[in-house]
User: What shape does this take?
Amino acid sequence: MRNASCAANAHGSWKEDAMSKQVLTILYERLSKDDGEDGLSNSIATQMTMLQDYAERNGLIPYVHIQDDGYRGTNWERPGWQEVITKIENGEVKNLVVKDSSRMGRDYLRVGLYREMFHEKGVRLIAISDGIDTLHGDDDFTPFREIIAEWHSLDTSKKIKAAFRTKGQSGKPITGKPPFGYVKDPNDKYKWLVDPEAAAVVRRIFDMTLEGICPEEICRIFHREKIERPSYYSAKRGQIKFDKALDTDNPYLWRANVIRDILERLEYLGHLVNFRYRKPSYKSKKVVENPRDEWLIFENVNEPIIDKKSWELAQRTRKVVKRTDTTGEANPLTGLVFCADCGSRMYNHRSKYDHYSCPEYINGRARLDENHCTPHGVSTKIIREVLLHVIRSTTSYAQQYESQFVEKVSEMHSIRKGETLKVHRKQIAKNARRIAELDKLFTNLHEDKVSGVLSAERFTQMSVRYEQEQAGLTALNETLQTELDTFTADNMRGENFLKLVRRYTQVEELTPAIIYEFVDKVIVHEAVWSEQTETQRRMGTRSQHIEVYLKYIGAFDAPDIRTPEEIEAERIAFEKAEHRRRIGREASRRYLEKKKAKNAAAAQQAPIAKPKASPTTKDPTPAA
Assistant: This one.
């Protein structure tokens, strides 16, 4: 025991002396999951024993162990290896001992560069199994060993990809972590269960998007409400192993790209998506997204968090950029309002009052263009009132008179007047029979020609005529079938709109979700005034035509289904409102005239101001 203690003390004194001189022997061990398949020969414990025995037998004392457990050889950001390189660059290392050169890495170019750096820094490299010791000169077979090590990594990568491909095609998830909102089933690692707390956040993100709130604003709201970001939430509950995610300085720091990724995920519909991402090379840690047609989607595998209609509506909502202004609110009408004359998408202004105007009018005036468009100005309040009225009247009519509604929509998009579905189908069947007859006639003609009954000239004449007739009938059938398909699609317009209406029993207010669901576009015409004079063009009553195009059915003029009492009440209310507006305009006119007369009278009575004498001007009056 005394000798062992003395040896330990001697060993410690050597190590302390070498450390003080900044001269170390580093014993570096690395093990990846792939290497673990080779049994105990590559285990960390085996490498430590081998390197330690070699160092002590050859007097490479003192030494320190630096390890990378669970890191592949193509990963050069390994923490242990980075520590080794840092110490070598600082001149703290004299000897570097590894089991074999593949422990340093499996990229012969990078390993070669490191070998050159070791040579420049005066570091002795020893790879025990490969018989490499740079103290005795370079080994001619070292480059070949490093190439073989890289080939091993490439071969392993191909095998792993093949295994993942087989697993992904079988309908099992190939991702190690379910998306935010799901957790792995403890009884079946290939099945996902809904995480109620996280799923509530996902549903809220979709609801806020339908309200027109942009991802950046969602991040700010979540930060104020102290809602944990997905990475922190998952790491805190042990769902993922990622130390950096447990950043307690700001666990509520959401990012807009995270919100966008959640909104785009098909997994929230209950689907499983495999092969969404890939690595360009087995040497690279970068992940790129595959084209959509390369994804493998298995539908309805897990319990959905978002219903299909809401998910699709959120995607349509995100197509139009909605910027928040100083009020912090985005306008849900952005991208839906168009000028009736030039077709431009109208600008929304909120500086003085919330309104829309034609951009060609504004830009044309700025360019001094005489042929610029007219303003087409309309307040956002008016547009919203018109939209609410159109949606309410159309949905009410569709709910109460479904069959008449579908018929009316079909009439709006009919094939041709006087032609019915039955006539088209009958004509197509008749043409098909004639085409079949022409095929038989052409076959008989060919047989008559071969047997000599029919001359070649006569065969050519008759076959050309039959081919022309057959081509004409085929083209006619294609046209009729296209019209039939159009007719069927037109019939489905009303049905599709009815499906939409059934989701909303009653439209009480114009929410962003209602706008995105029902409105396709809004066409604004130039305003017209009832009175106009040479001195004042805009007088009397202002009227403006606004067209509303609804999803599936376009501009639909719903019949008035109100009772006579309701119509009369609305007429009386309109007349009262018009009377108040007329009185207000008259009062405003009298006020402006009175103010103008007052200013004119004040200008006449004001004394003429005398000019002040210049300070350099001398007074001509002699002093008394």
